[in-house]
Amino acid sequence: MTLQIKTYSEIVSSMLTSIGQRTGLTNFNIGSVVRTLAEVYAEVAAELYAFGAEMLKQGFLDTATGFWLDRKAREYGLTRKPAIKTRGTVIYSRRVARNTNIPIPEGSIVTTPKDQAGKEYRYFTTEDAILGSGQLSVQIPVIAESAGSSFNVGPSSISKMKTFIAGIDAVTNPTDWITVVGVDEEKDADLRQRCFLAWEELSQGGTARAYVSWALSVPGVKSAFVDDTLPRGEGTVDIYIMGEAGPPDPALLDSVQEVVDQNRPITADALVRSPEIVTVNLLLSVTPRAGYDAVAMEAEVRRRLSIFFGDIEDAALSIIPLGVGKDVVVAQIVGIVMAVPGVYSVVVHSPASDITIHPNQFPELGALTVTMEAASHE
Hints:
By secondary structure, the chain is of the alpha+beta class.
């Protein structure tokens, strides 16, 4: 059965036709009493049609969104993974090691400089600390003001003190300063995928999809791949995961291992591991059609290839991102670029052929060089 959705104009036209047939009235001009009443009722009917269409969409797992997808997920025993605040350490320092102690209170605020959009990222110290007599610096743990991946800033990005501390000359965040990676709230597409995986987990037990489902249930895991070809001998299974910000840290590996151990078949020797990173450099030549903006086209090519390698996301595009154990296929790269509006042709110079990615490897986009050729008038 198909739900027939009528527009406001169609409803008005249908009502006036029916009134004319039943009453013989003919004055349906704009502003007439009959037309005005019909238009009022048509607005209500149109809203009911729209509501019915929306409820139909929200009633199925593959089309539900937001609150309604959360409700569907509960049917599978799942909840949306929450956003996580970035945690790490910063270094407070002074130029001269004086014979004085400098107390740094809990809750002291440090920030990044404002970016081009005027946004600064604030962090708070999480414990009292002292820069001791004769010391030049002290390392202090901090937590982001809000949850989300945008607070996973690079080294030396945190350089401003909003809380004045006498005697402190500078603050910075060192290399590998992050101890807990900030994570955005789970997107609809990711929660939907876990729901489908959970269904297969319930129906089939300890299959590869079940291991993927268990791994993805842990906050901070972006993707997972299972090598169930007995990689370490009879009864062994290896699960490779990637974190939101790249290869997983030991804490994330331990968290996933704990979940897997709680659910795996008793006879399975399942080990959660970090994959080997394989850097893939791309060199392309793109020929646009005449009349298209080559600069905008190059930007879109770069954006879609970044989606393909999993660096960014866009649910509006049907691009399946690469992951652990997924081969880099040149024909897929060509297809992604050719799908950009205005592209006439593309030549992939590097890689010259498909790159085989082993089950313990993860393809990462390295240098991306896009050369825009002269426009084609064909």
